[in-house]
Design goal:
alpha/beta, 2 domains, 38% helix, elongated
């Protein structure tokens, strides 16, 4: 489908000329730009019942109640619920049989004279598809990257118009709605790193799939959902947490992948005196992990998501193919220790210099970025396919000119052996398990945990 309306001027005018839509725009903090578009293009009296900005914290509290953080999902929801309830109380009797009501809100901290860092914020809308229908809702979180305050202002105004227009006109095509959020915008200015659809308009939407689409379509570099299947805002989930990441295809999760993570967690707690409740585990899949040929099989992704959620795992989806980029991303959210766990073949790949040809400093620069803060790699042994002997981190052969670099990483504990993984699991590879599933070789059932085997058989997953 080709969308003809992409400009915020056109979108705002189209909404103003549609007599059925009527609602409130309420903005606090830095996000006081959306309503301006509707008044600028003309005809706003037919669309806007009320537009308001509550910049003072005291005024905001008086209207919406007190809260711990003004730029938060909690505050966004308070705003949306309050404004939508007021609309119905004051206008439903007179206009409800012919009007679809909506309430749009945002709460944002943007770059300013006193706030010199990149901003972030929450935007959301409650809306009706049909008169007197139960409302649907969209919540999004954004990270702002404008280098001047005026850039963030313009971004917020356009994004707000895109969200309102998308909700009112594209709700039947949620993936198209998602892509439309970036009309006239680009990722260097803003990232949408969380989106949550709910209500009757989105009964068939799986928000885990929408998290994948955010990354796949370039709205964000990463998105996350928790073990209960709910999308979550990454900075909230990782704040003040020690982070343990396992990168894999999880196609399917095997005895090896789960034992690797469990052993790494025990070592992490022992080495850094980290308490279990301080650690957040992330099962990470990159876009490359999710695709063999450039196309992502939605059903295949959801199979993996279902299994990981059933195992109680938090899932991170990213486009950080290079480990140092993943590390830099995680450093943004916590000052606690960070650990990545992997098998020996993955460590060998990290030392492949072809992945760093685009960096002026090559592999040295990548490792400098990767180990800049408190990060380490827990690496399990592997079985040599020729000799059948176990090979550990101290046996890994790297290029001759990199041997001193590798020795430095070992000596300083950046790379640590994980010898507690069960030896019988070291010969289990998920691609071989998948092949056995598809060809009917039942020996795969011993290679995965019993809950995984049961799910795959009961739901006939992976073909």
């Amino acid at each position: 489908m080709t969308r003809e309306i992409r400009d915020p001027h056109q979108k705002a005018l189209a909404l103003n000329l549609e007599a059925r839509n009527y609602g409130t725009i309420a903005e606090i903090g830095a996000g006081q730009e959306t309503a301006r578009w509707f008044f600028r293009v003309g005809g706003a009296a037919g669309t806007i019942a009320k537009a308001m900005s509550a910049y003072s914290m005291e005024f905001s509290d008086a209207i919406y109640g007190t809260c711990q953080r003004y730029v938060s999902r909690e505050r966004l929801r308070d705003m949306l619920d309050k404004e939508y309830t007021l609309l119905l109380e004051r206008l439903d009797e007179s206009l409800g049989d012919k009007t679809t009501f909506f309430a749009f809100s945002n709460t944002v901290a943007a770059r300013s004279f006193t706030y010199k860092t990149d901003g972030h914020g929450w935007l959301g809308i409650i809306f009706q598809r049909e008169p007197r229908e139960e409302p649907s809702r969209i919540d999004i979180h954004i990270s702002l990257h404008g280098k001047q305050h005026v850039q963030d202002q313009e971004t917020l105004g356009i994004l707000g118009v895109n969200l309102i227009y998308g909700a009112m006109n594209l709700h039947s095509e949620p993936e198209e709605l998602l892509r439309s959020l970036m009309d006239q915008l680009y990722s260097e200015l803003v990232e949408v790193d969380m989106i949550d659809f709910s209500g009757p308009a989105f009964e068939k939407v799986d928000n885990r799939l929408m998290a994948l689409r955010l990354v796949q379509h370039g709205l964000s570099n990463a998105a996350m959902f928790t073990a209960d299947g709910r999308v979550t805002q990454i900075s909230d989930a990782l704040y003040k947490k020690a982070i343990l990441v396992e990168r894999s295809r999880f196609r399917p999760p095997t005895n090896f992948t789960l034992d690797l993570l469990d052993c790494a967690k025990k070592a992490f707690m022992h080495d850094d005196f980290v308490k279990q409740e301080e650690i957040i585990e992330l099962s990470e899949m990159t876009l490359k992990n999710l695709s063999d040929d450039g196309d992502i099989d939605v059903s295949d992704f959801l199979y993996r998501a279902d299994i990981l959620c059933a195992l109680g795992k938090n899932v991170l989806i990213s486009n950080y193919g290079q480990y140092f980029k993943l590390a830099q991303f995680l450093f943004r959210y916590t000052g606690k220790p960070i650990a990545l766990t992997m098998g020996l073949p993955s460590l060998r790949e990290i030392f492949n210099e072809k992945y760093y040809e685009d960096l002026p400093g090559g592999i040295l620069e990548s490792f400098g970025r990767m180990f800049k803060h408190d990060l380490r790699l827990y690496v399990s042994p592997a079985m040599d396919p020729v000799t059948g002997e176990k090979v550990g981190v101290n046996d890994l052969g790297v290029s001759h000119h990199l041997r001193h670099l590798y020795a430095h990483l070992l000596e300083n504990g950046y790379v640590r052996p994980l010898d507690t993984v069960k030896e019988e699991y070291l010969s289990i590879f998920s691609h071989e398990v998948l092949d056995k599933i598809r060809c009917g070789d039942k020996s795969w059932e011993t290679m995965v945990p019993e809950p995984v085997s049961r799910m795959i058989k009961d739901q006939r997953l992976f073909g």
